Amino acid sequence: MPTFNKNSAEDFEAEALPHLSELFRTAVRLTESRSEAEDLMQEVYMQAWKSFHCFELGTNCRAWLFKILSHKFKHHRCKKSRFKFIGNSEKALEALTYEPSVRERLSNAEILSSLERVPLCYRQVLLLADVEEFSYKEIAAMLVIPMGTVMSRLSRGRKLLRVELSQVAESCEFEKNEKAKSASVLKFLLGRFRAA
Questions:
Q1: Confidence class of residue 13 from pLDDT cuts 50, 70 and 90?
Q2: At the topology level of CATH, where does 105-169 sit?
Q3: Taking residues 138-149, what's their average pLDDT?
Q4: Average pLDDT over residues 55-74
Q5: Would the pLDDT of 59 be above 50?
Q6: Annotated domain spans of the chain
Q7: What is the widest separation between alpha-carbon atoms in the chain?
Q8: How many CB atoms lie within 10 A of CB 161?
Q9: Residue 45 burial by Cβ neighbours in a 10 Å radius (0-12, 13-18, 19+)
Q10: What pLDDT score was predicted for residue 108?
């Protein structure tokens, strides 16, 4: 029969608070909204505080917090799916004001945008494995799925992310080539007009 620890507030601060930024970063990627991630983090840390008397000091607090995050996110997603939204005005505004620029590498925003286009079940495993560096076994325990499912979702998620990133890279390369062609045509025309 498990014994309950009487952990103190200092223990909670020492064990749980160092992982706050990692959890928040993952929550933002999962919810795709900073304000929703803040609400989710509040729920996660409230649940962690309520359950901290059951936590065994010296075990993996990071994995324990990510498991709470996973459960709270599922609950959050279920609540959110009950309501239907007509549209996201923030994303519409971004689309209207977006001006692509030509560069040699993809920006963090483009990479994160590509990651957001990966379906959630794969994105969640990608974030936990590749960003947060949890083992397959830890991820399986957090998400309450078989380890084989973790491996297949990770493989498929990586493949989907590669496709998304290659499409972004190809569009950047196309824009770069089009601008280079326009510049060479302009130089040619200017040279012809000066010669005449």
A1: confident
A2: Arc Repressor Mutant, subunit A (1.10.10)
A3: 92
A4: 88
A5: yes
A6: 1-83, 105-169
A7: 96
A8: 19
A9: buried
A10: 76
**Any idea which of 30-34, 49-53, 56-60, 102-106 has the lowest mean pLDDT?**
102-106
Number of neighbours of residue 195 by Cβ within 10 angstroms: 6
CA dist 136 → 18, 28, 71, 144, 148 (Å): 23, 22, 17, 12, 9
Give the whole-number percent of the chain exceeding pLDDT 90: 18
Position with higher pLDDT, 167 vs 101: 167
- Assign domain 1-83 one CATH number from 2.40.440.10, 1.10.1740.10, 1.20.58.340, 2.60.120.10: 1.10.1740.10
**Residue 104 DSSP symbol:** S
Chain centroid to CA 86: 24
Q: CA 112 to CA 189: how far, in whole Å?
A: 41
Contacts with 15 (C-beta within 8 Å, 6 or more apart), sequence order: 7, 55, 57, 61
pTM of the prediction? 0.49
DSSP for 142-192, written as a single string? HHTS-HHHHHHHHHHHHHHHHHHHHHHHHHHHHHHHHHHHHHHHHHHHHHH
As given in the structure block, the two tokens for residue 44 are: 């996660």
Are 72 and 44 in contact by the 8 Å Cβ rule? The answer is yes
Are the beta carbons of 141 and 67 closer than 8 angstroms? yes
Q: What is the Cβ-side half-sphere exposure of residue 171, based on CA atoms within 13 angstroms? A: 10
